[in-house]
Please model this.
Amino acid sequence: MSVMPLIVQKFGGTSLANAEKIHRAARRAIRAKLEGYRVVLVVSAMGKTTDKLVDLAREVCSDPPKRELDMLLTTGEQVSIALMAMAIDAAGHEAISLTAGQLGLVSDSAHTRARIQRISRERIESELAAGKIVIVAGFQGTDDTGEITTLGRGASDTTATALAAVLDGTRCEIYTDVDGVYTADPRLVPQARKIDRISYDAMLEMAAAGASVMHSRAIEFGAKFEVPIYVQSSLTDAKGTMIMPETVGMEAIAVRGVTLKEDLAVVALNGVPNTPGVAARVFAEIAKNHILVDDIVQNMYDDGHFANLGFSTNADGAGEARAVCERLAAEIGIERVEIDEGVSKVSAVGLGMRTHTGIAATMFDALSKARVNIDNISTSEIVISCIVRREDGPKALRCLHEAFGLDKEPDDHNVMS
Ligand code: ADP
Ligand code: ASP
Ligand code: MG
Model:
C-alpha cells in the first residue's frame, strides 16, 4: 500500500499569538489532513514569548549560563505544542505533541546555537501511521547526553525544513506574518514587492544577509534535499513565495533583493604579527568557541610585518568575542582588540550578478548620493555587502532598493534569481 504524501507546516510566533490564532493554525493543519496529507506541524513560541524569556533571564542574571538559557527558552515552544494539540483535539481530530527529546532530534552540544545532527523518523512515522497530526516543538534539540539545546533565534524554520527533508516531505509550508518573501523587509521599505519564486541560492544569501523572514540554515536543508519551501501568510490565502531549485533564465535579474543586518559588531585585531599560521590560530580559536564569523578583512602595514585583521560577528556574541580575542592577543602578541557595536550591513543579492556588470558601481553611487559612508565592502559570487553606521542602515536599504529598481515589476515574469 502506498503511503500518503507528507507535508510540514510551520507557524511562527505572531501566527500563534492567542487562542484564536492557534485555532486558525489548527484548522489549516486539519484541512491539509482532510485533503489526504500526513501532516507534521512545527510551532514556535507564542507571540514575543522568547524575547520576554530572554529579558527575564537577563533580569535575574547579567550573563546567564547558556545551558540554563536553553532550558528556559525551550519552554516557550513546549507551551505551543500542547495548546496546538488541544486545539486540534477540540476540533475533533487526533494529534500528539512531541518535544525534540521525545521524537529524537539530536543536535551537537553548542548551547544557544546548536546544529541538528540527526533526526529519528520512527516515533513521528508511527504516530502519523496511527492517523494523528504530529506537532513538533521548533527551535530545540537534545544532544547525545540528553541535554536540551536551542538551534539559534528563528530556527523553528530549520526544524521544519529538516523534518520535511528527513521525512521525504512533498513540501514545507512556512506560515508567517507577511505573505511571502519581499524584495526588502516590507516594514522598512514600503515599496518592497512580493517575489513569486526564488532560488534556494538567492534565498540562502538573503537570509544570511539579514532577511529574517527565513532562518538561513532552513534553506540549506531545503536545498540539499530539494524540498520546495512555500512562505505564505497565516492570516490570508494570498499567494506566497516558492523557494525552489534554480531554473533556466534565473540570471536575467541582476539584483533580486536587498537586505539589512542590524545585529552586527565588528571585531578589529590591530597590530597582528604577520607570520604564517597566525590567522589560522586566531580563527581556530574563534571557531572552537562557536563564535559566528561573518566577513573577514585583513590588510598589511609596516612593509608587511604587521596586519590589521577584522571580522564581523553577531552583536550578542560581541562580549564573548572580545574575551576570546583578548586572550589570544596576550598569547600571540597582538597589539590591540577593538569592538565596534554600532554597525549594520546592507547587501544586494541576485544570481544575475554572475553575469551582469556594474552592480557594485550602482551600489556605491547610490550610497554616496544618500550620503551614507561605507566602512567596509565584501563581495561573493551573488552578494555585495557594505558595512555602514547603524543609524544609516534603514536609509541605505531604501536607497539601494530604489537604485536597483526593485519597486518596479521585472520585465520578464518568468525569470527568477
Ligand atoms: P515568524 O515569527 O513567523 O517566524 P519572523 O518575524 O521571524 O516571523 O519573520 C517575518 C518577518 O520578517 C516579517 O514581519 C518581516 O518584517 C521580516 N522580513 C525581513 N526581511 C524580509 C523580506 N525580504 N521579506 C519578507 N519579510 C521580511
Ligand atoms: N521562538 C524562537 C525565537 O523566537 C524560534 C523561532 O521563532 O523560530 O527565536
Ligand atoms: Mg522566524
Remarks:
- The pocket of magnesium ion (ligand 3) is lined by residues 12, 154, 157 (CB under 6 Å).
- Confidence is low (pLDDT under 50) at residues 412-417.
- The two ends are 40 Å apart (CA to CA).
- The longest strand covers residues 257-273.
